[in-house]
Amino acid sequence: MNFDNLKVGEKNFIEITVTESDTALAMKSGSLKVLATPKLICLVEEAAATLAEKFLPAEYTSVGISLDVNHTAPTPVGLKVRVEVELVEVDGRKLTFAVTASDAAGEVFNGRHDRFIVNREKFQSKANFREQGLGNREQKAESSKL
C-alpha cells in the first residue's frame, strides 16, 4: 500500500483549558495542581493520530510506537495550553512528528512522537489472538495444578 498523500509539513493542534482533572495531582503522576505530563502525552497522541487518520484509507489507522518528550515548564489550572504536532518524516509506514506545547507564558513541552501505519483488521486480529493465547496459558496452568 502506498501512503504518498501523507506529506511532511502537515500540522495539527489541540487546545484545552487546564482543569483540576488534568493535573498531576488528579492523575497521580505527581502532587501538584499543574498540568500533568500524562495529559500532555494523551493530547500529543490524539493530535498525531487525528492528523494521520485524515490521510489514510479507511482500512488503515496508526498506532503510537514511541515518545521522547521534555516537560519543561508548569501550566496551572485555568490557563490554556496548545499542543501542536508536525509531520517531519515519513519512512514507509513509520511517521515521525515534532511535538510542542505552549501556554500564554511560552513553551512548556517538546519532543518527538513516532506512529506506525497498520491495517485495522489485521492489527486487531493480532491483539485478539494474544488475548486468546493468554486464556490458553491460564487454562494450561490450572490443569497442571490438578
Give a description of the structure.
With 146 residues, the protein is an alpha+beta fold. The chain has one domain (11-118): Hotdog Thioesterase (Thiol Ester Dehydrase, Chain A, Roll). The protein has 3 helices and 5 strands, in the order βααββββα. The chain has helices at 24-27, 37-55, 120-145; strands spanning 11-17, 60-71, 80-91, 94-103, 106-119. The chain has a 5-stranded antiparallel beta sheet with strand order 1-3-4-5-2. Strand 3 and strand 4 (94-103) form a beta hairpin. The longest helix is centred in the last third of the chain and has 26 residues, at 120-145. It is globular and about 45 Å long. The model has no long low-confidence stretch (mean pLDDT 92).
When the domains are counted, the total is 1
Shape descriptor = globular
CATH T-level topology:
Thiol Ester Dehydrase, Chain A
How far the N terminus sits from the C terminus, by CA atoms, comes to 50 Å
The CATH architecture comes to Roll
> How would a crystallographer describe the biggest sheet?
5 strands, antiparallel
Order of helices and strands: EHHEEEEH
CATH superfamily: Hotdog Thioesterase
